[in-house]
Amino acid sequence: MVTAVERSAVIDAAGGMHGFPAALTSFVGRAAVVDEIAGQLGQYRLVTVTGPGGAGKTRLAGEVARQVACRFADGVWLAELAAVQDPAQVPAAVAAALGIRELPAVAAADALAHALARRQLLLVLDNCEQVIGAAAELCGRLLLGADDVRVLATSREALRIAGEARYRLGPLTLPGPDSPADPGGSEAVALFADRARRADMSFALDGETAPIVARLVARLDGMPLAIELAAARVEALGVAQLLGRIDDRFTLLAAGDRLAADRQRSLAATVEWSYRLLDERERQVFRAVSAFPGPFTLEGAEAVAGTGATQAVLHLVDCSLLAPPRAGPDGRFRYVMLETLRSYGAGLLAEAGEGQAVAGALAGYALRVAEDAMSGLTAGTGEVAAARWLDAEDATMHRALDWALEHDAAPGQDAAVAARLAAALAWWWQIRGRLAGQVPLLRAAVDRAAAGSDAWCAGHTWLGQAAMDSADPVEALRHFTGVRDALGNRGPFPLLARCLSDRSATLLGMGRIAEAAGDARRSVALARDGDHPAAEALALSVLSLVACVGGDRVGAVQLATQAERMSAGLHGPTARACGHTLTTVLVEVGDVAAAERTCAAALAGARDAGDLWSLGNLLEKMVVLDLASGRYADAALHLREALQTALRTGVRRKVLENLDCCGYLCARTGRSAEAVTVWAAVVAPEREGFSAPLHPDLPEGWFQRQKPLREARQALGPAQTQAAEERGSAMNLATAAEYVLMLTATDPQPPAAAPGPEALSPRERELITLVARGHTDAQIAGQLHISVRTVSSHLDRIRDKTGCRRRADLTRLALSAGLV
Question: Alpha helix locations (H) across 29-131?
Fold first, then answer.
């Protein structure tokens, strides 16, 4: 029994805070969280704050306790359980914290509840995870036997008893994209700045350090302990070196407070504390899922960790080693592991010798997902869902492809995985406007495949498409011809039919019309023989262009209409490509109304599917239709969007075609000098490799620039024409694109509100001219015979004078001033 002396000890200590250490540092952020948990304590008798190690649960509990202490007549009491390893000792440890010196060995939890039955207090049970069962039992007894006692528990997993309210503590708020290092808008940045100033009084959050701090706290997952440990290294390393070395965070962040508990003195010790509480199967699953570079599904977890991993994953969520699942862009629920925990798991994975097996399993999983998604992408109605599936798995796909390319395993094994994976992802890369940027990966994957294999042929077909987009028809033809020769008359026939269609389009753009017709007809025949309607529709579409160029415009419309009808309900990108072709031939025969209906429908489909590649093609056609109907304001808006899309996707061919369209727009709106300048930029010597629509062998009338160009030159006169042509010829492609964006803007003024180019010195005007021509700092330094540091210094002064922060802003400034 509890004696009267022991009851008196509790009574005498009533009111205030008991057992809490003095706060020696400021509490940064989480004011709303403190209020929310304080509110929960007013509503529930047991509140458990869960979160991973280093999330700041203990400090938060202390702040909540201080806020609510006035509510409890007998005060707030802290019972620290981290040092308790024997579950049977939990009641005794709590009793000691409350000043109760003795408890009977039997039913100790009941005796403690009896001792507190007449008290009104808040008991804070800190760090319950390693004795979670005993802590849960004690809380259950207190809830039943002491009506005026409330409990605030902290743990890496919930107690899971009746009456418990759970609060999962997340990271500190991270910087937003618009304010990358604003301490007022980011708790993580504010904490780092506060602790860094304690470590180094000279530290300041300024224009140089703020962006680095923003990236650093994001890499540290917004976890308070990791941020404080990093801030302690500021004086020795500086923030730039801290960020540069953060991949080795467990070595770097290993010198914390000497007086802190062992588990809080280093980042590794904090994570290890949680890891040691898992059983062996849970540890194995933790190591395996750490291989995922981003969110993952339960199916993914089982693929890398083995059948039956689901229960372990659920427990890892309970233990705060995984974040609860959230719906991704595809609607599937995915789990997330913090980067710090992934880094720790990766080290354990390597140490256990499991790294290669898990990476191989991950690559196999990625390949299955990619090939299943590709089937959906080519199935018409499943296109949007399949693309969103790959959007959600983006990080995993990239990791798997990198591993398949780099891993040195059995000859041909991983080469096949890499090539198949890249080929399966190519449709998705194209519709998301990423194909141009993925060419190096695609080429490396194709080089691993056996020459002439299905994966090799598929990869080279996509490389040919990328070359077409890059305005390199010679390279495109090389890829398509290689695939044609490798496939011969064998399967897969849909791939051969598509390759021949693409080869025909390439030959057509090069003016080799007879060859283009032969390939297109063969493609139609192959697709029909193999009963592949999508391939047949694409082949008919290309054949219609051949007919149009050859002068049979009625036949061209018939073929394009047949292709467009056949493609309806089939593969989305193919259907939109057929819509684009039908629009083209309808424009050529003068049926503008039908062309507008066709283009608008295809354009809506591209927007709905997020198909940037088709969007760029169709917007360019809308510009042509706007010009034909005299809608010049609409033409400018569509042209601007088309060019921005082309720049975003890296499709050089479309950039050039958009520049060409701008020439027509300027000519139609009386801006002769601008028309001549833009057209001179289009045909500048460094862009001679681009053929369609510039190739002289195409029939007269297919692309009619000569007449408006001649009229513009006549309106200007020889001297002004020469000046305009010299200006355009001096532009590189990026500068010409900025020029067109400026011409099509509703407000074409440069962004500088401060003094413009007239405030610049002759040397500074020379510098922004070179920037506008696409020169790097190193190239400028070499041309002007000065150091790169001097160039950078000059440009900083120019930015301060003009307010132009980005190189694109400086380019527009130079263009508006006529310096380029």
Answer: 31-43, 57-68, 90-97, 108-115
pTM of the prediction? 0.78
d(CA 285, CA 322): 11
Q: Which two tokens stand for residue 19?
A: 């057992």
Residue 656 DSSP SS3 = helix
What pairing do the DSSP bridges indicate for beta strands 121-126 and 76-80? Answer: parallel
Phi, psi angle pair for 334, to nearest 5°:
-130, 150
Question: Would you call 300 exposed, middle or buried from its count of C-beta atoms within 10 A (0-12, 13-18, 19+)?
Answer: buried
CA 291 to chain centre: 18
Two tokens, residue 786: 């000065």
DSSP 3-state of 590: coil
Q: What is the largest CA-CA distance in the chain?
A: 112
What is residue 305's three-state secondary structure?
Answer: helix
- Dist. CA 185–CA 174, nearest whole Å: 8
Which amino acid, residue 305?
A
- How many residues in the chain? 820
Residue 494 sits at the vertex; the CA angle it makes with 491 and 500, to the nearest 5 degrees, is 95
Q: What region, left, alpha or beta, does residue 99 occupy, with left being phi > 0 and alpha being psi -120 to 50 degrees?
A: left
Burial of 78 (0-12, 13-18, 19+ CB in 10 A): buried
Phi, psi of 90 (to 5 degrees): -60, -50
Using alpha carbons, select from 84, 52, 130, 126 the residue that is nearest to residue 286.
52
Helices (H) and strands (E) in the chain, counts: 40, 8
Beta strands 333-336; 323-327: pairing state: antiparallel
Tokens matching residue 546 = 């051949």
State the Cα–Cα distance between residues 762 and 488, nearest whole angstrom: 63
Average pLDDT, the chain: 84
The partner residues of 123 in beta bridges, in order of sequence, read 77, 151
Question: Smallest Cα–Cα separation from 306: which of 335, 281, 338?
Answer: 281
43: left (phi over 0), alpha (psi -120 to 50) or beta: alpha
Residue type present at position 12: D
Buried b / exposed e along 199-214 (16+ C-beta atoms within 10 A): ebeebebeeebbebbb
Tokens 């010798």 belong to 353
Q: How far is CA 508 from CA 231, 373, 457, in A?
A: 62, 32, 22
pLDDT digits (tens, 9 = 90+) for 425-483: 999 999 999 999 999 999 999 988 888 888 899 999 999 999 998 888 999 999 999 99
CA–CA dist 4, 408 (Å, integer): 75
Q: How far apart are CA 716 and CA 724, in angstroms?
A: 9
682 neighbors 740 (Cβ within 8 angstroms): no
Which two structure tokens, joined as six digits, stand for 710? 């001649």
730-770 pLDDT, tens per residue? 888 888 999 999 899 865 444 444 455 667 777 777 788 88
Which among 409, 399, 370, 403 has a CA at the least distance from the CA of 293? 399
Contacts of 738 (CB under 8 A, 6+ apart): 772, 808, 811, 812, 815
Query: Going by C-beta distance under 8 Å and a sequence separation of 6 or more, which residues neighbour residue 112?
Result: 91, 94, 95, 98, 100, 103, 138, 141, 142
Strands 76-80 and 323-327: unpaired
Q: What is the pLDDT of residue 782?
A: 81
Q: Which regions of 58-179 does DSSP assign to beta strands (E)?
A: 76-80, 121-126, 149-155, 164-168
Cis preceding linkage at 492, omega within 30: yes
Evaluated on CA atoms 797, 801, 806, 809, the torsion sign reads: negative
How far apart are the C-alpha atoms of 505 and 500, rounded to whole Å?
9
Q: Which whole-number Å values give the CA distances from 729 to 65, 161, 646, 725, in the listed order?
A: 72, 76, 21, 6
Spacing of C-alpha 461 from chain mean position: 27
To 5 degrees, how large is the angle CA 524–CA 525–CA 528?
85
Neighbours of 726 (CB within 10 A): 11
- The tokens for 348 are 């354990």
